[in-house]
Amino acid sequence: MSAARLVAPSPAPFLFLHRQTGKAIYKRKSPDGEWYVFRSSHRNRSDESMKLKYGDYVTGKQNRIKARL
């Protein structure tokens, strides 16, 4: 008989709120996060939105994991 594994509960879910002023988009983690620029009105390399990549980076890995199960 194997020993039971204790699994720590996952952290409480959170969400992000977005607000738009002109072409600028602001974002904050709910409920108590600070507002910050997600995308400025003039594209800036330091904008968080520049971290986003186009494409599907999950499905291939997910299929490989499912095939091993």
Characterize the structure shown.
The chain is of the alpha+beta class and 69 residues long. The protein has a domain at 14-47. The chain is 14% helix and 26% strand. It is built from 1 helix and 3 strands. A hairpin with a 5-residue loop joins strand 2 (24-30) and strand 3 (36-39). The longest helix has 10 residues, at 59-68. The two termini are 22 Å apart.
Note the main attributes of this structure.
single chain, 69 residues, alpha+beta, three-stranded antiparallel β-sheet, 1 helix, 3 strands, 26% strand
Secondary structure: helix percent? 10-25%
What's the end-to-end separation, in Å?
Answer: 22 Å
Q: Quick one: how many beta strands?
A: 3
Given as residue ranges, the uncertain stretches (5+ residues, pLDDT < 50) are none
The profile of the biggest β sheet is: 3 strands, antiparallel
Helix tally?
Answer: 1
Average pLDDT number: 84
Strand content: 25-35%
**Element string (H = helix, E = strand):** EEEH
Basic shape = flat
Order of strands, widest sheet: 1-2-3
- Helical/strand content category: alpha+beta
The value of Rg in angstroms is 19 Å
